[in-house]
Amino acid sequence: MPYFTSKNTSLYYEQRGQGPVLVFISPPGLGCTAFEQQHPLEDQFQVVSFDPRGNGRSECGEAADGTIKQWTEDIYALVSHLGADQVILCGYSFGGLPAQEFAYRYPEKTKALVLISSFPKVRTFMLAGKFRLGIWSTYENLLGTLGKGLAFSHTKKQDQQERIEKNIENSDPGVMEQMYLNGLHYDSTGLLPHITCPALTIFGSNDVFVKKHQHDFQSRLPNMRNVHIQGKVHQLPTRAAGEVNAIIRNFVNNDVYADISQNVY
Q1: Gene3D superfamilies, from UniProt (predicted)?
Q2: What is the DSSP string of 223-261?
Q3: Phi and psi torsions of 89, nearest 5°
Q4: Which fold has domain 3-256?
Q5: Claim: this prediction has a pTM higher than 0.90
Q6: At what angle do helices 125-139 and 173-184 cross, to 10 degrees?
């Protein structure tokens, strides 16, 4: 299995295809298992995903390293390991936080930013409740129960459900707790005006967790497009994989290497 090293910590990653590099970043626990249905993009792109530190098959490092900034440094280590000049970051939900931080801190390495069901800060009751449920699950040693819930909500495919459950069960409770706590209080709204690469946000029209956050991006993030997938909820990489893949292809082919002249599709 392939691994890269960040801060003396061995982290698991998967790499498929050739071409422009898409780095997919998951919420805590899911890791590579969240993006199995993005594998068809390998016919045009280099599709890369990884298990964050302390998650799934990756080592923990220090317990205090479950922070957004360390997560960002791990992504930088992965990009360096790949030997990529620039990458297109694809952050899903919570995974959009380190993606935004990376785009701000390493603009020279960021070709474009794709945010799927994501947000710059937790500011709704529903999203805060989801974070607190994650924190409570680590307190009570209920990662197995959390894994079953997340697996069921993400996919009907039993084999993928089993891989999601296993990845979460194998995650370190201390690092998961630190991730949720750090994310609950993280705020990237001040960074957004400084992210000038082409950007795309994708939301499900029925997403009760983060749809309202689209306005944060629209008001602060330059050079962005916003896409709604009608009738879909939060778990877009698995529940609307075909639509997500097509939107990413269109964005990269028509916008990343061209001037953006509109705000929405």
Answers
A1: alpha/beta hydrolase (3.40.50.1820)
A2: SEEEEEETT--S-HHHHTHHHHHHHHHHHIIIIITS---
A3: -85, 130
A4: Rossmann fold (3.40.50)
A5: yes
A6: 160
| 201 token code pair | 């946000």
The phi, psi pair for 95, rounded to 5°, reads -65, -15
> How close are the terminal C-alpha atoms of the chain, in Å?
40
* Residues 38-83 pLDDT 10s: 999 999 999 999 999 999 999 998 755 678 999 999 999 999 999 9
Cα gap 93→235, rounded to integer Å: 8
Domain residue ranges of the chain, discontinuous segments joined by +: 3-256
Rounded Cα distance between 206 and 211, Å, is 8
Cα three-residue angle 88-238-80, rounded to 5 degrees? 25
Rounded Cα distance between 135 and 179, Å, is 9
3-state secondary structure of 228: strand
DSSP for 165-207, written as a single string:
HHHHHTS-HHHHHHHHHHHHT-B-TTTGGG--S-EEEEEETT-
**What are the φ and ψ backbone dihedral angles of 56, each rounded to 5 degrees?**
55, -115
- Specify the 3-state DSSP secondary structure of 14: strand
